Model the fold of this input.
Amino acid sequence: MSVADRVVVVGDVMTDVIVRPEGPLVRGSDRRARIESRPGGSGANQAVWLGSMGAKVSFVARVGAGDKPHLEAYFKGFHVDPILVADPQEPSGVLVILVDADGERSFLTDRGANLALEPSDMPVWLLDETRLVLVSGYSLFAEGPRRAVLQLAGEARSRRIPIAIDAASVSFLREVGVGTFLEWTRGMSTLLANADEAEALSGTGDLNEQMIALGACFERVVIKRGARGAAVGGRQGVRVDQPAPQVDVVDTTGAGDAFAAGFIAAELEGADEAECLRRGVEAGSKAVEHLGGQPTTTRIVLGPGRRGRRDDGRS
Done:
């Protein structure tokens, strides 16, 4: 793979504090729970999944100064080129994830240093070697990182480098307003959205109508539908619809990020849309089978007829 096949990912670095209560929360009292800390953040998840799939990826983010050395080592371990800016004041972000018995999750977010991302942090020099820029929508929901991302996006467009945007959060979309989000993302080529985000952005719950509406704003629309699989299309409607396999769901955190990585990694290898979609669904399905939003092994191979093979030989 040449340097021209590089993906530049821009997004958050978080520490995920995953809380799995033994039952419903008891207001004003105790509930036993299993609590674990894992590396997370939507952009970080996407970068690590891409690196583990063999893609050439650089990841841009801002972190607490004290965390930079060990985070750089961590990302390099997953074959990711980390372009991390050390913030001298703000700590790295923290996300508390409450996981229900069925694997669904709710979030409490303190984005910390991620909110201080600046235009000067953007590696414009790297665009000469870049095939695609992938942006986490979380970077658009605060003024500082939004200015940084939109500057990089403008430079990428001037070089005819496609930009994919992940809608990231239906609650934040509703907070800033659909029209505002679509204005920010004008000119970006691919939208990645889950079913709730697609409905909020399009104003309809019908998949084909979502594709047509959002296809007026993006060249390509990829909608992640959870247990129902995923679909890709545009202004003419759905082009390909891929079902998802039945799996034992442990934690849905990061499944959409794994999907995005699988889809993009396949595209970098020259796969058609149907295969990109299949690989994305396969990656997302693997992600929900373990706790946390990032892979548990540094090399993952996805391919026709396989459910994802680890390089240690275990299925």
Summary: Residues 175 and 192 are 19 Å apart (CA to CA). DSSP finds nine helices and 15 strands in the chain.
